[in-house]
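Annex B. Sample input.
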Amino acid sequence: MVGMGDGMGVLGRTMAVVLAVVASTAMAQGAAQEAARSTDLAVSGYDGKVQVIYRNGHAYVEIEGLARVTQSSLAFQGKNIVLTLPAATIQVTQAAPASTPPAPAAPQEKGFSRDFLRAGVEQMTVVREWRSAVENAVRTGNPVDQSWVAGYRRNAENRMAMASAMATTESDKEALSLLQNVNGMIQQLSDRFLSLRSTLTYAPTDSLDNDPLDQKILACAQGMTAVAIPGGQFQDVQACH
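Annex B, continued. Sample output.
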């Protein structure tokens, strides 16, 4: 016959076994549940996945699989494992600057510019003075001398250079060719009488009365003066050709 003390001992051992079984069953169920929660890890920007395993409420991933997916390298340094990720390619898109409306184009000057007209008038003044000096020398029977002709020639060339630099509009550039023409004419006329001087050939005092080149120079100068109006459009002067 079993005493009460013995019965209590048997009951206690029985309860312990039951609790152990229940606990074991619960742990097995928990492990099964965690195993059922296993998922895959996808790394943004890389192909492939790595399995994630849950243990004791924590998520674990296989490091070799992670290295394979991310194309990383593994190294062992003492007790440490070093995972070296590949250099990331970062694309920076520079924001385009705010578009600003293009600056309005400066209005194109039409007709003769004032600067060119000023330079052109100065050049034509030299041409007229040069012509007058040649004419006075011939009419008074004095030789056309290289000493003073050189001064006129130098001044004319300087004024032509200035006019060329100031020619900006279409009318300026077209009129510039006429200035160059008349500059060549006066040099040709002057050179003719210089040649007579060098050969000691007498030049009649009326040599310029009906001289075509002299009349052409005069007509060119008068025609260009008539069309030289600030802002005016170019008009061809036939006598300058």
